[in-house]
Structures are given as structure tokens and as C-alpha cells.
């Protein structure tokens, strides 16, 4: 019998197997099996807030006929996280994605195509709270991603599937634009009103429609009313003219 100390280390193989096992379990839990005729779509392997209004999930069949449509307003809050950074890999070609864009992270290639044509519109900074974000616009050579940005519901803080984006520098508008676009389109068929909360909304909103119109990879449902605001936690760092 081979002594334990002389056995070959199989930890790498164990990690690979555990990834495959988790991927299979996620697909099973969401109704995708070996005989499924369709593959999971964007965000299909993730769950959203159970209380936020979702057509076909938790709304009645005749909800569009309700005169009090304000009850079906969807609320989102956006923010960035600079602790979720990623080091550059020695062999990035070995990084195999088993469920690219199927859960909370956005699909890689559509997001990259968006970044390739997106333009960061220079604008005068009039808000003190925005300056802290602007300082994060620095490239760190040892990192491939400096952080992430995401959308969550304002009711219970549940992340919105297929809205988590990577930062290449800092919390740039072009990054958050994609998260906003995906959030506005996530299961919002028939939703007429959406509220967006962002800690730097005073600066972010200025050219939002202009950026969306000039980028073929950004869109939101036609006729949707978009309201904006700054969350109570961050609003005290702003000036009166910010809102």
C-alpha cells in the first residue's frame, strides 16, 4: 500500500471536479437537464427578488389592467466594489467558463463589444462625492479587473441577474451603463416605471440618454418611465444643487 505522503496531490483535479458538479447542480435546480431542448439564457441560472414585481412570476395575469400601476414600479440601486479585484493570470487561455453570462455576471463577449465602442464623455465635475470615484480611475498593472459594479433591488438588496460588470480601471460610466441597460431589460415586460438610485446620480444622469443613443449595445424598453435619485446613505455627501 502506498504511503499517504507519497501519493500524488490531486487537489487541482478536485477543484475542477467541484466546479463541474456545481454547474450541473445549478442547471438541475433551474430545470435544465441532459435532455433539455434549450440552453440556459442570460441570467437563467440565478434567482431574483421574490417580492419585486415580475411578470409571469409573481403578478396576476390581468395586472396590466390595474389602474394603480404605481404598485408595479421596479426599483434598482447601483454601486461598485473595489475589493472584488482579480489578478492577471499567467495562462488566461486555461480559464474555461462553464456558464458564461448564465447567472449574475454579464456575458463576456457582448460586454467587451460594448466597451469597444463606448465613449467616456468628459464633463465638469460639480459634486464632491463624485471626486472619490474619479480618483479610482487609475490603472493598476498587476490587475486584470480592478473591481465590479452591479444592480440590486431597492426592496431587499437582491442582485439582478446578468448585471454584474467588471471594472478595467475604475467605476466608469461606460461600465455602469451596461449594468443599467441589462437591469432595465430583465423581466420588465409591461413594467411602465423604474426608479434608479445611484450614489453619483447627479453626475451619471447628465449624459445617460446621449450615451445610450450612441451605443448599439445599450437599450431599455420603449415607453418606460425612468425616475432617478440618490440613496439616503450617500445623499448627505452631495450639494443642494445635486438634487
UniProtKB/TrEMBL annotation:
It holds the Pfam family KDZ. InterPro entries: KDZ. This is CxC2-like cysteine cluster KDZ transposase-associated domain-containing protein.
Amino acid at each position: 500500500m502506498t504511503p499517504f505522503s507519497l501519493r500524488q496531490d490531486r487537489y487541482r483535479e478536485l477543484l475542477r471536479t467541484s466546479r463541474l458538479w456545481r454547474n450541473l447542480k445549478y442547471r438541475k435546480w433551474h430545470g435544465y437537464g441532459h435532455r433539455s431542448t434549450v440552453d440556459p439564457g442570460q441570467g437563467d441560472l440565478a434567482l431574483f427578488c421574490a417580492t419585486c414585481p415580475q411578470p409571469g412570476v409573481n403578478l396576476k395575469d390581468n395586472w396590466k389592467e390595474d389602474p394603480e400601476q404605481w404598485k408595479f414600479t421596479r426599483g434598482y440601486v447601483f454601486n461598485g466594489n473595489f475589493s472584488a479585484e482579480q489578478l492577471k493570470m499567467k495562462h488566461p487561455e486555461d480559464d474555461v467558463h462553464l456558464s458564461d453570462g448564465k447567472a449574475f455576471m454579464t456575458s463576456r463577449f457582448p460586454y467587451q463589444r460594448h466597451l469597444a465602442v463606448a465613449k467616456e464623455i468628459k464633463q465638469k465635475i460639480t459634486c464632491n462625492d463624485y471626486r472619490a470615484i474619479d480618483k479610482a480611475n487609475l490603472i493598476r498593472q498587476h490587475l486584470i479587473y480592478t473591481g465590479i459594479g452591479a444592480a440590486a433591488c431597492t426592496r431587499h438588496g437582491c442582485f439582478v441577474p446578468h448585471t454584474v460588470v467588471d471594472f478595467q480601471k475604475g467605476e466608469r460610466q461606460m461600465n455602469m451603463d451596461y449594468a443599467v441597460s441589462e437591469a432595465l431589460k430583465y423581466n420588465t415586460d409591461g413594467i411602465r416605471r423604474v426608479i434608479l438610485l445611484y450614489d453619483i446620480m447627479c453626475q451619471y444622469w447628465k449624459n445617460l440618454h446621449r450615451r445610450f443613443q450612441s451605443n448599439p449595445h445599450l437599450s431599455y424598453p420603449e415607453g418606460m418611465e425612468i425616475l432617478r435619485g440618490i440613496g439616503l446613505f450617500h445623499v448627505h455627501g452631495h450639494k443642494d444643487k445635486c438634487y
